[in-house]
Design goal:
Order of helices and strands: HEHEHEHEEEHEHEEHEHEEHHH
Radius of gyration: 20 Å
Number of strands: 12
Number of helices: 11
CATH topology of the largest domain: D-Maltodextrin-Binding Protein, domain 2
Largest sheet: 7 strands, mixed
Number of domains: 2
């Protein structure tokens, strides 16, 4: 069964590699192909990076990124932490806070999601998006004012292999508001399923996704939000305060960022909404070759402006997003070289760099 599950999760790589070989012109067939671990089929990055792959092929790029379906960004941490065969050949998508809480793997707080600690100083290639889901919830029951009101309620969250949708939402509920599976009906399921449960009234609150960028001027509103909006029912949101985020950061030596969404960013959101966000990145193992990192960053930087017009996820892209949180210490040297040649490395001074927990 384990072998079958692995085959299911990784079959996408072989399929997409075949597509790349068929679609590519003769000169591109010698291009370096690099699998990139993503998330469940249907997630935004899966679709966005598939379009990116096609555009890299059309552009006759010397590096082609092959999207690979996985159970989620938490799964990617575990896979890259234990599978040495992928260290020099794979890129994976994850987040700064996920890398940080992985240091607490195996602890009472984390063992349900991560049975063992993963203390690897992953190296960043580029920023993907700032994700807000899991650090606030949506409801059609506007008598609920805060997440603390969810005790005894039905709550639909993402899978345990998903960082924002599943893991972070649980950490927020339990360690900030005292809401646990013992005092509430907490359900883990796919984004599509949890959204439908909220629409059907089978649950009282659920994860609502949103993507942003460092300047908080562009927002990515996923399709499931439009599904909720299409019901015609008033949506209300259960947000977080800055003190809530600080409590979570202190607990896990992490760096969630508190932001206030401007009014009308989300459907029926008439007032500013406090939420937590974390920064998602394309990351590699410290042994990942510098030349591959260099070529990857240069290829993405070249094609990204076109991608802004092709997929909603890439609408939030900018050089600021690509470099926010990077430093000489946490970034692959090949990627640093690329950013310096692009003239973008100076942008890293605008953001606090991602750090690793002590121990």
């Amino acid at each position: 069964m384990k072998a079958l599950r692995r085959l299911h999760y990784f079959a996408a790589t072989a399929i997409l590699a075949g597509v790349a070989a068929i679609a590519a012109p003769q000169s591109t067939r010698a291009a370096e192909t690099i699998p990139i671990l993503l998330c469940p089929f249907g997630c935004g990055p899966m679709a966005g990076d598939t379009i990116l792959m096609n555009q890299l092929i059309k552009a006759d790029s010397d590096v082609i990124l092959l999207p690979q379906e996985t159970p989620g960004y938490m799964y990617n941490i575990r896979e890259m932490g234990k599978n040495k065969s992928k260290w020099k050949n794979f890129i994976f998508k994850t987040e700064d806070t996920l890398i940080q809480v992985a240091y607490a793997g195996g602890s009472p707080e984390m063992k349900e999601f991560l049975p063992e600690a993963v203390k690897i100083p992953w190296k960043i290639l580029y920023g993907e998006t700032w994700w807000g889901q899991g650090k606030f919830l949506g409801t059609f029951d506007c008598s609920l004012k805060t997440m603390a009101d969810l005790k005894g309620k039905r709550i639909s969250l993402g899978l345990r292999g998903q960082s924002d949708w599943g893991v972070f939402a649980r950490l927020v509920l339990e360690h900030v508001y005292g809401i646990t599976p013992k005092n509430a009906d907490i359900r883990h399921m796919t984004p599509g399923q949890l959204t439908q449960q909220l629409i059907d009234g089978a649950t009282d609150a659920a994860v609502v996704p949103i993507g942003a960028e460092p300047n908080m001027k562009e927002f990515m509103i996923p399709g499931v939000v439009r599904q909720l909006e299409a019901t015609g029912k008033k949506m209300c949101y259960l947000g977080m305060t800055k003190a809530d985020i600080e409590k979570l950061n202190k607990k896990f030596q992490a760096e969630w960022i508190h932001v206030n969404l401007p009014p009308n960013t989300l459907p029926h959101q008439s007032k500013p909404l406090g939420i937590g966000v974390n920064r998602a990145y394309a990351v590699v193992h410290p042994t990942f070759p510098e030349d591959k990192a260099y070529k990857t960053v240069m290829a993405v930087a070249k094609i990204a402006p076109k991608m802004k017009k092709l997929h909603a996820l890439w609408r939030v892209w900018s050089p600021d997003l690509m470099t926010c949180g990077l430093s000489e210490e946490n970034t692959n040297p090949g990627a640093v070289k690329a950013y310096k040649e692009l003239g973008w490395w100076k942008l890293t001074k605008k953001c606090k760099p991602m750090t690793y927990p002590k121990g």
